């Protein structure tokens, strides 16, 4: 079954309205509703909260504040450290409910638990909060200014960390002897994940165990973060997720609301339910990207790259979310050279606190920023030197593999020049001049962009899986990674069916339940089939080995005499036993494996975009989009293509329209919902042609697969922006809105 485009099994129930999202969950009898009162100020001293009226309001059972949590011994949400920073990482306390000061609009200051959501909201209106507004900083420039207001005493100058990698001396030497040094300032604007399902949770006590149902992507990591904040053992918490309506990174981590709800359930002995409104998620969950960089690329007279220097400043928001610092330092460093052989690279990263929502991993998590930088610097080099951009790419593409990048990444597979050349042919680059002339005859401007990308995919290293074959003929597969829309209910059973040579209908898939999944690192970093598939492969080998031994004992033969086919161990004389029959005779068969593979895979490809602009209005139309990508071997090509297309659509959104905007003085959120935050609709997208190549399988896992989940989001922004620059004839920063294009055309 490996390589077959099997339609998604889960879509039948989704299309029939039988999905099981948090809002679809049956609410236990006696469930109370939670409402979080949030700060309207970006920065303010938090004085007394008058709670008597709220606590006496109809239906109210409990009102909690930060002081209540502190008195109960509940501490700060943890953040993962980054390694070897030049300036130690500052991790300020991040209380689940504000203590002493609020630092961004939407920060929760109180939680009201009532019989109904409406009663809780009404009670929230009765709380009188004593705010003393303070000066706010909304941008990294303002936050790092010498006289800027300080957000945290532990972070002088509002600096969360300083970090560097590479050889600064080698870069300086190469710049000094270069024929050309190209400099640009590049922006990856702050965006939001905007999953279709907002955050939601149900906290309760089930069979004496404190339990949290939530729409999360990484049950064990979230459980560990919550347990740290609450000062309890992770094993004392049970976390599980139903269907998850999209995540893209924001659902990978714990939030203060989870901690508050569990504490309330523990106090009241009643289930507590909370479903965020979309405006809450825009203001109070987490955002992504948010990196400004000054880059310099050195070339010799023939256009060979000599050195790259990148100085980046990233927004961290008011507090550190778990993965925020890592996404601004280590992860972009892994991909900063793209698919190119650049002898010397130096990367410096600075994280800055500001009065904005925290930053977290967002699909690609540092790799989109890195790829955008190198690809747009190649476009700039072509402009400044008069050389052809495609020629520069093909001349500098890595050809000798394995290749160790200047920042220490060992790239083992890929045919990068071939992908570029093939994409140019499929996109008909040779015929573009005629198409441009046709647009010009109609008073329009047409642009063409052809760029490459390199993903460094792994996420957290290692994974766990267990396969159980029982007497009823069902094989249960449990894996520590999980789906939030990628199709794991199809692809994972498909792979196990391939491994065991049995029908896919015999497979039962289990995920996202810490009581049934021993360990695991969830979804993130395009790791699911790379890490989870390898765990399943090894677990399948253990199960078949156990079954072969049992069959040999039951059939009174040598194990090597048995032939395995179609789920049955057989002998030449016709005798044999199926997995179900072996399990019936010998007990449940089980293969359980936790591997520690830490190798990275290298999804890569070339993407081409063609746009047409109206110079009178700046309106841009995306006419064509072509991708030629390498994801190693393809388990299910249809699912892989769908993953790439979804990522491309998100990347197009970042390039053309998406931006989280704060007022530069008050730090008030200006894009607080879909009235002010644009995302691409079907009408904004052409047919997204995705060609998949399997000629470069990876040896990083036994399947030969590379991650597909993030690649489209990593590849699309630079392809779109290269086409827009070609049409405009000048630099344009993302998002390339009609206003931005019109201003660039106006000079």
Give structural notes:
With 747 residues, this protein is α+β, with helices and mostly antiparallel strands. It is built from 21 helices and 28 strands. The strands form seven sheets. Strands 3-5-1-12-9-10-11 form a seven-stranded mixed sheet, sandwiched between helices. Strands 7-15-14-13-8 form a five-stranded mixed sheet. Strands 18-26-27-28 form a four-stranded mixed sheet, sandwiched between helices. Helix 16 (488-500) packs parallel to helix 17. The termini are far apart. The model has no long low-confidence stretch (mean pLDDT 97).
In terms of topology, how is this protein built?
Blueprint: H1 11-15, E1 32-38, E2 44-50, H2 52-55, E3 60-65, H3 66-71, E4 101-102, E5 108-114, H4 117-125, E6 128-133, H5 140-143, E7 159-166, H6 168-177, E8 180-192, E9 200-206, E10 209-214, H7 219-230, E11 237-240, H8 256-268, E12 272-275, H9 278-284, E13 287-299, E14 305-317, H10 324-327, H11 330-335, E15 344-353, H12 367-385, H13 389-396, E16 403-404, E17 410-411, H14 416-426, H15 432-441, E18 445-454, E19 463-469, E20 475-479, H16 488-500, E21 507-510, H17 528-555, E22 563-565, E23 568-570, E24 576-578, H18 579-586, E25 589-595, E26 604-613, E27 620-630, H19 637-656, E28 688-693, H20 711-728, H21 738-746
